[in-house]
Amino acid sequence: MYFGTATNQEQWSNKEYTELMLEQFGSMTPANVQKWMYTEPEQGVFNYTAGDEFANYALKNKKVLLCDTLVWHQQYPSWLDEKTWTKKDLLNVIYQHVYNEVKHFKGRCFSWNVVNEALNEDGTWRQSLFYNVTGTDYIETAFLAASAADPRAQLYYNDYNIEYPGPKSAAVENMVKWLRSKHVKIDAVGLESHFIVGQAATEAQQQQQMQSYIDLGVQVVVSELDVRFETLPPTEAGLAQQTVDYQASINACIKVGKQCMGISVWDFDDEYSWIPSSFAGQGDADLWYANFTTTPAYTGVVSALEAGIEKGYKSKEKLRL
Ligand code: 9MR
Q1: Where in the cell is it found (predicted)?
Q2: pLDDT the model gives residue 309
């Protein structure tokens, strides 16, 4: 099992940040540099400079490299929207993009988030460029291209609000069944786990939902965990609740056993969190405050992980927290 974080190179010039990252985490996910807009800025012109820098740095520091993301309705290049595509041509473009990128990083990525966030909250398909032109064929094409390019990389479907039973998680289950029935390689579901303090899925709900995916023959990961406050500053009671909310995900992952392969937080220090720019006035979602002191949730996460290790659920390897 790994316990890791998403990060960006821009932050690595901060020594305090980088020391913590290298000391505390067992895996690294690039929060941006492997996304389509950066890796294929013009059609057929690939740029892996920043992605390579990230990958090599992570591996040099003996981190598990979790690669992110191949097909997503955000952060894709503008040329995709500037043309009117036939289904055949767009599927070909998707195949070429995924194949080229996965091949480039072959042997370095433990996993790929192949398709991100393809569903609406009610379990219907998101009306993205990809869906509008190809229907659900783009999903199959992306997974096929990824498995052809690197048969050893773990291939994930990754989404949020799929950590508990409901229409969206039911739709993910159907997607897994559909891909598996067609013998398309999909290894795990990534549960992003972007929660709000006091509104997170409970440990029991998360364990139940993880088990539902596992029962379909795939594994699970907690891929982007954070628990944000809707109003700031946090109260003492809020901090205690945030700790419980963080622990719910850790404990659920531990309880389902090896089939939950790992947990990543999406940024670990509030200074660099994505939250304030996406949710004005919200924040303090991470395990360290902006000034690099630990939050109560950090202590709670460490004790939940240690309890899991003692019970023998997890190996200590790669687990730095
Ligand atoms: O952390 C990423 C941030 O730097 C980008 O500006 C943002 C663009 O939407 O994407 C963030 O990462 C997202 C991830 O790729 C998918 N799940 C939600 C994450 C937070 O938005």
Answers
A1: Secreted
A2: 76
